[in-house]
Design a protein that fits this description.
Helices cover 16% and strands 36% of the residues. With 487 residues, the chain is α+β, with helices and mostly antiparallel strands. The longest helix is centred in the N-terminal third of the chain and has 25 residues, at 149-173.
């Protein structure tokens, strides 16, 4: 390297050193502040004194708790998941104080994700640890004993039921936090689905009640057992299921699969050990392909169709559906489809990975999934959204559900190049190439960061003064932003 090149490198290094990384938070994180109220505007999350030097990544979080990573490799958790200042095993036994989560490994954490009440983290050694709701945890050794005892077990049980009841009640009531009603598309088949949910919830309650007292409903961190040689690069967590992506582009899944969210071709209520998800190996035309095969009418053209790409490069989990991106930019969806969140033009469940055919020819770079919706970003920086839209979480300007991907053409995104997207339960956030942040959707807890509790059905810019946003991650009811600020 010549002298001029060395001088340029030293200047760049100095610029990096002079920039401090800051994490902003907003939304519902009970325990994050002494007054335990929702954060309506961006608020700085302070690094714990014993944690490390700087933030390196934000990972969202679950029900009332947030997770992020320090450059020391420590996973930091904060917030609380009940009203007593205590929290689930998922977030550590603390509230407003940010602390390293006690994982049974000295290896640095490089990636992490959280579902409703379970988490997963990837180490620098490409291993995965997971913890939280026991039904989300695959078979494996559980490290340590629960520090919470019976009171924690009872709280976890009640919170689990609250999650299921909330999903059913919100839809059956047909109301929004800020007024308005569900669209006709959203209410289609509502009676049958609500009845089905009540049956499932009742059966689940009975099963859990019979086992209550025999064992705790949550598990402390355990190492996930995978096939020899499998190295995991990243993870995604849904309501009750988990996906992991290996360094060679293979997807693995475990947890609850009753709506097909594990992509195994059937309604598997529980997968207790990681299984490979066949995303690219088989042709993928979803339900149409399956019915055509049964009739013997599948054309030779369709038989020869293969999903564009050689491996999977990105994964996302929604409440009860999953999404993957291939290296060729093709989007595949599977799982619950009641609101059109699989983007197949209908409201059917997809039991196997199915290519979103209306996006073929558009290279998808980033994708995120919420409780009932999906949002993705193309290589050209365009945003496409589909699924449930009761709170404006699609950003289309209305509340109509979309069963096919719809391009967001709102003026606020005109002449902008979106590079990354994240979804909470019922809100969405994007980060543009020129470091602008836009949020939209449900805002009962201030999770849009706009200073109020009014839902937005179009992208609305979140102003971050004196800082340059670098990464964004939505939790279920909150949002985290990683930004750089001059020291």
């Amino acid at each position: 390297m010549n002298g001029e090149g060395k001088e340029i490198m030293e200047v760049k290094m100095e610029e990096v050193v002079n920039k401090e990384r800051v994490v902003f938070m907003w939304g519902y994180l009970p325990g994050a502040l002494p007054q335990r109220t929702p954060l309506l505007s961006p608020t700085v999350a302070r690094i714990p004194a014993s944690g490390g030097c700087s933030w390196i990544d934000v990972c969202g979080g679950g029900c009332g708790f947030a997770i992020a990573i320090l450059d020391s490799g420590k996973l930091i958790t904060w917030g609380s998941t009940d009203d007593l200042g205590q929290s689930y095993v998922t977030s550590g036994k603390h509230g407003e104080i940010l602390e390293p989560f006690p994982l049974p490994t000295e290896a640095s954490i490089v990636k992490a994700a959280a579902g409703w009440a379970h988490c997963a983290a990837v180490t620098e050694n490409a291993e995965v640890y997971t913890w939280g709701w026991k039904e989300c945890i695959p078979s494996g050794k559980v490290f340590g004993d629960s520090p919470m005892g019976t009171s924690f077990e009872k709280d976890a049980f009640e919170r689990q039921n609250t999650f299921l009841e909330e999903q059913a009640s919100l839809r059956s009531q047909g109301s929004k936090s800020s007024g308005g009603t569900f669209s006709a598309a959203d209410s289609k088949g509502g009676g049958e689905e609500t009845t089905k949910r009540r049956r499932i919830s009742s059966a689940k309650h009975s099963a859990e009640s019979s086992s209550y007292g025999d064992e705790t409903l949550s598990a402390l961190p355990c190492l996930v057992t995978l096939n020899p040689g499998v190295r995991i690069a990243t993870v995604a967590a849904g309501g009750r299921h988990t996906l992991a992506l290996s360094d060679v582009g293979q997807v693995w899944g475990w947890g609850y699969g009753g709506e097909g969210q594990l992509g195994l071709g059937s309604r598997v209520r529980m997968v207790s050990s990681p299984h490979p998800v066949p995303c690219i190996e088989l042709p993928s035309f979803g339900r149409y392909r399956a019915s055509a095969l049964s009739r013997g009418s599948l054309s030779s053209e369709m038989q020869s169709f293969r999903v564009p790409g050689s491996y999977v490069k990105g994964i996302a989990c929604g409440g009860r559906h999953s999404v993957v991106i291939t290296d060729a930019g093709a989007l595949l969806t599977f799982g619950w489809g009641l609101y059109g969140q699989c983007g197949q033009g209908n409201t059917d469940d997809e039991l196997s990975p199915a290519c979103v055919s209306s996006l073929l020819g558009i290279r998808i770079n980033s994708v995120a999934a919420g409780l009932w919706h999906t949002v993705c970003v193309s290589a050209d920086g365009d945003v496409y959204a589909f699924g449930g839209n009761q709170f404006g979480q699609l950003g289309t300007g209305g509340d109509q559900a979309e069963t096919l991907p719809r391009l967001l053409d709102d003026p606020s995104l005109e002449n902008t190049h979106v590079k990354f997207v994240s979804c909470g339960a019922r809100h969405s956030a994007v980060l543009t190439e020129d470091s602008k942040v836009f949020c939209w959707g449900w805002k009962k807890y201030g999770q849009l960061g706009l200073g109020d509790v009014i839902d937005r059905n179009i992208p609305s810019q979140v102003i971050i003064d004196t800082c340059s946003p670098k990464s964004i991650a939505c939790g279920w009811w909150h949002t985290l932003l990683l930004a750089e600020s001059p020291t």
